[in-house]
Amino acid sequence: MHSNAMPSGDPVEVNGQADGIPEATVARLPVYLRALYGLAERGISTVASEELAAAAGVNSAKLRKDLSHLGSYGIRGVGYDVDYLVYQVSRTLGLTQDWPVVIVGAGNLGRALANYGGFVSRGFTIAAMLDCDAAIVGSRIGRLTVRHVDELEALVARHKVAIGVIATPAGSAQAVCDRFVSAGVTSILNFAPLVLNVPEGVDVRKVDLSIELQILAFHAQRRSAARPADAAEHGNPGASRGRSTPRATPELAAKG
Q1: Torsions phi, psi of 70, nearest 5?
Q2: What's the Rg (C-alpha) of the chain?
Q3: What does the alpha-carbon distance between residue 73 and residue 243 come to, in Å, rounded to a whole number?
Q4: Residue from 106, 145, 101, 141 nearest 119 by CA
């Protein structure tokens, strides 16, 4: 297995966590970076911790603690320099260099990922896109020509691929993952609805859209259940706090 060391003087990433930086902080850094890009695009040169925290959706104390791990403390009464903080966060995340990425799976999801312009602007280059379907291999997706998955190992070596993306059906995902790992890829982004088995030293991030939708459904249901309580508070005698009470049927009334 190969490891990707960052330039001298930068934090070295080990097993998905930058040395000396808590994993929870690492997970929030991309959110801060997205907020900082938004501020920079609006021409804002300095930002207070409260404003940046609000843009990132965290409290300001947590943000200040997170950024202190990067050696950035801001200036009292002035705040943080946006451009320099972009550099600090990008450097810590390893985004001051381009990371070649290979996507396996050229279906609808894979095509959407390949056409996403945010990869290039955020430090990633789609080096190749692979599939096993003869009807898809050879077709063009943006600037890429879909290659056969049999070329995976050769393309990983040729482009020095650091990150593999799996956008295949669940039944193919583990086999693709095993080939990535055997080829020396130690960072994998998995969109397949399957938990991958990988050896120690390989980092996997799973993106499961169905789980995210189920979580949203939970919150939508909670809000819906709370509406009768809102009605009761506004003087509706037919509504009760929490869930509404069903009317008793004649049979139940007789038993009561």
Answers
A1: -95, 0
A2: 25
A3: 48
A4: 101
User: May I ask the CATH architecture of the domain 13-93?
Assistant: Orthogonal Bundle (1.10)
Contact 99, 124 (CB under 8 A): yes
Q: Which residues pair with 5 in a beta bridge?
A: none
Query: Between these two residues, 44 and 209, which has the higher pLDDT value?
Result: 44
Q: What is the CATH number of domain 99-207?
A: 3.40.50.720
Is it true that 13-93 and 99-207 share their CATH fold? no
> Is residue 63 a contact partner of residue 38, using CB atoms and an 8 Å limit?
no
- Give the chain's mean pLDDT: 83
Backbone dihedral angles phi then psi of residue 246, each to the nearest 5 degrees: -65, 150
Domain ranges for the chain: 13-93, 99-207
Task: Tell me if 207 sits within 8 A of 194, measured CB to CB.
Answer: no
pTM: 0.71
pLDDT for position 254: 36
Helix and strand numbers (H, E) in the chain are: 10, 12
